[in-house]
Amino acid sequence: MNGSLKIGTIYGIPVLLHWTFLLIIPFFAWIIGSQIILTVNLISDLFSIPIDTSLITAGLTPYILGTVVALGLFFGVFIHEMAHCVLAKSKGIKINSITLLIFGGISSMEEQTPDPKVELPMALVGPLTSLAVGIICLGIMYLCDAVITAAPLAGLFVFIFGYLGLLNVFLFGFNLLPAFPMDGGRVLRAWLARGMPLNKATRIAADVGKVFAVLFGLLGIFLLSPILILIAFFIYIGATQESTAIKYSFLLKDVTVGDIMARDVLTVAPDMTVRSVIDLMYSTKHLGFPVRDRGMVIGMVTLADVHKIPPLDREAMQVRDIMTRGAISLSPSAPVIDALRIMSGNNIGRIPIMDGDMLVGIVSRTDILKVIELKEM
């Protein structure tokens, strides 16, 4: 994910920190610190534990405690995501990374059509992990209250672990809401997929998720809560995107790139000038060409490559100066859905099709969208 910094590797999984994470920690610390008396009273009433607030409310302590609780919350979210990833790896799914960002964590897994039998336990393990973390924190809270004899110091630990316990139990319940693509929505889809095709189950789960997104949005407007409004936005967008991805996988499941590729491929030589390539793009309405030298494909040149060159340099520079070497290619037997995923993941519009060292065709995003349109009919 762009804007992320790798901070380590756990269980063979790279852990990334997104820059938005650095924004949300001070924000959460300020909110927790500003409402500390209200929260202390809530914890005290819920668990019947008297809390000495003399140290908790002194000076900058509320905001220091707010920072500690915010970091503890995101550590809990990280453990939640790790639970998803560990179970996924045990099922043979490749995990690319875990990224901590403004709304918590996100696991990047190797894309594939979900198996409901695998997805159900994977979706449940995250919330159940949050529940376990919450129960452990509440247990530590009671232990601190019983063991630490200095009342002000005990109050600090009771507050921290009580708050973290409540937050993680809340995350357990919140994540089980059937608001696809949240964990509860994935549980709903896995349950629906037992009696209907996956694409239909996904569409129903996504529609339920959109309803929850609208409800969150309306509640956010009513409560003047930008957090709820943003959550609503991301749930709605996520439900739409995943529903579309599964629909495409279903429509393209039996189609290979060899079935839809253009076989008459126009190539360019590495010594062609950039200006000549631009003229060729205008005349053919194609925005990218394989570069062939002595019968071998050595790269791709696209409109994006041309855009990187100042207009004054385009007359003198040649294709070899701007082309992408070692361009991604596929064999004719590769599934079309793989081509679409590669295009989306690498932000490219076309892929050359190679049979060994021989160029046999090319597939563009437009070609794939036309096939999808025909399949939908």
Fold blueprint:
Elements: E1 4-10, E2 13-18, H1 19-34, H2 36-47, H3 61-90, E3 95-101, E4 104-109, H4 116-147, H5 151-175, H6 183-192, H7 198-222, H8 226-251, H9 257-260, H10 274-284, E5 288-293, E6 296-302, H11 303-307, H12 319-322, E7 324-325, H13 336-346, E8 350-355, E9 358-364, H14 365-376
Parallel strand pairs: 2-3
Antiparallel strand pairs: 1-2, 3-4, 5-6, 6-7, 8-9
Helix pairs in contact: 1-3, 3-4, 3-5, 4-5, 4-6, 6-7, 7-8
Query: What structural class is derived from the secondary structure elements?
Result: alpha+beta
- From N to C, what is the helix and strand string? EEHHHEEHHHHHHHEEHHEHEEH
Can you give the helix content as a percent range? 55-70%
Q: Beta-strand level of the residues, as a percent range?
A: 5-15%
Low-confidence stretches: none
**Strand segment count:** 9
- Describe the largest sheet: 4 strands, mixed
Compute the average pLDDT: 87
Gyration radius over CA: 27 Å
| Widest sheet, order of strands | 1-2-3-4
* Shape, per Cα inertia axes: elongated
Return the domain count.
2
Between the first and last Cα atoms, what is the distance in angstroms? Answer: 36 Å
Number of helices: 14
How would you portray this structure in words?
- With 377 residues, the chain is an alpha+beta fold.
- Helix content is 59%, strand content 14%.
- The protein folds into 2 domains: 4-251, no CATH class; 257-376, CBS-domain, CATH 3.10.580.10.
- It is elongated.
- The chain starts with a strand and ends with a helix.
